[in-house]
Design goal:
Layout: H1 4-22, E1 43-44, E2 58-61, E3 67-71, E4 75-83, E5 88-92, H2 98-103, E6 119-126, H3 130-133, H4 135-138, E7 151-156, E8 170-178, H5 185-188, E9 191-195, H6 203-207, E10 213-215, E11 219-221, H7 230-261, H8 280-284, E12 288-290, E13 317-321, E14 326-329, H9 330-339, H10 353-365
Length: about 375
């Protein structure tokens, strides 16, 4: 019925209007339901305005709806959690092999993040027999870097035991410094915890329902609430929208019932007219030609059948529609005319085949 689009439009617009009035441009956002919430000082690019986050705290969503933080000299990491009270962000490697990223060099240079603790770790490239010789060191094996032919160990400095020589089982070693506050080795290979300290806390602002905003180069503001409250806005919107919606719904029901009571006798026959096709004998009256060995066509520029999109080849049988002189493969146009009775190109309906041929002949002779 004609009023259905109006009802659908209202059902769609009212929730959108409510959400736009309730939510500010700097409200909390996420990449997905299970992802960490993003709020000041962080900003979700392409979702929140630039003023909603502090410089250097831009996050983004990847193609799997995971939250991503890009460090200038270390690349992209997945954001596991964000602790806004402690100002800590926990990062993971997208490929679940953080040790490989650490081996390639990890730097916080140019970023807004720091680490309170650093520890020295040593990578060892060892024989797979390391498990038989020193099972203690085998506990530091990195699965994502090791194979059946060698074992890569990541050993913290505090775990090196005096008197244990790995030189005859391990060929190379590399020392790296990793920002890690824990002593647990498994945490090092799974995630990195970083802090930020260049932004003021907005605890008071957030506790009172506000949202911090970044303005200018170094100014952080918590805009004071102005005007009516959010609850009042919702009440006003519902108070105005509900009567309008009910009124339009009543009008729609009235129009629908009136249309059902109207007789159908005034429907013109043209509304029920359906395109009629041609029978086989009538189609056979249209002239057929066979493409010669030279491939010459009645119209050289028209060398492709518009139905099957194949070029005409020698020995192909063509059928011409007299009224418009368009021609096609006979095997293609015959089924078409049986269903439609019109030219596929110009859509002109064909009259009596005999009359069409006569008119075409008279026109050609003139």
């Amino acid at each position: 019925m004609a009023s259905s689009p109006i009802i659908f439009l209202l059902l769609f617009l009212i929730p959108c209007c409510l959400s736009s009035c309730v939510d500010s441009s700097c409200s909390e956002s996420t990449c997905a339901v299970n992802e960490p919430p993003v709020q000041f000082p962080f900003r979700l690019k392409y979702v929140q305005d630039e003023q909603c986050g502090y410089a250097g705290f831009d996050l983004s969503c990847n193609n799997k709806n995971r939250t991503v933080l890009a460090l200038p000299f270390s690349g992209e990491f997945l954001v596991d959690t964000i602790n806004y009270q402690e100002e800590i962000v926990v990062l993971r490697d997208p490929d679940d092999c953080l040790a490989r990223r650490l081996l390639g060099g990890f730097s916080l240079k140019g970023s807004s993040f720091i680490s309170d603790h650093y520890r020295n770790f040593t990578f060892f490239n060892c024989s797979p027999d390391i498990s038989d010789a020193y099972y203690y060191y085998y506990n530091f094996r990195v699965p994502c870097l090791s194979t059946s032919h060698y074992s890569i160990l990541l050993v913290p400095d505090y775990a090196v035991t005096p008197g244990m020589d790995l030189s005859y089982l391990c060929s190379d070693n590399w020392m790296v410094t990793i920002p890690v506050p824990w002593h647990t080795w498994s945490e090092v290979t799974e995630y990195i915890s970083l802090k930020w300290d260049r932004t003021p806390l907005c605890e008071y602002c957030q506790k009172h329902g506000g949202s911090c905003k970044y303005e200018g180069d170094s100014t952080i503001k918590c805009p004071a609430k102005r005007g009516i409250s959010k609850r009042a806005k919702i009440g006003i919107i519902l108070g105005v929208a509900s009567p309008c919606f009910l009124g339009i719904l009543g009008i729609s029901c009235y129009l629908s019932s009136r249309n059902r009571r109207q007789p159908n006798g005034n429907v013109s026959p043209e509304q029920h007219a359906r395109p009629m096709g041609m029978d086989g004998p009538a189609i056979e009256l249209y002239p057929k030609t066979e493409v010669g060995d030279s491939g010459q066509l009645p119209c050289p520029s028209d060398n492709t059948c518009s139905i099957c999109l194949s070029e005409y080849q020698p020995k192909d049988t063509l059928r011409t529609i007299p009224n418009c002189s368009h021609y096609f493969h006979a095997r293609c146009i015959d089924p078409w005319l049986k269903r439609n009775g019109s030219c596929p190109l110009c859509r002109n309906r064909q009259g009596s085949p005999a009359k069409s041929i006569t008119d075409h002949t008279n026109g050609s002779s003139a």
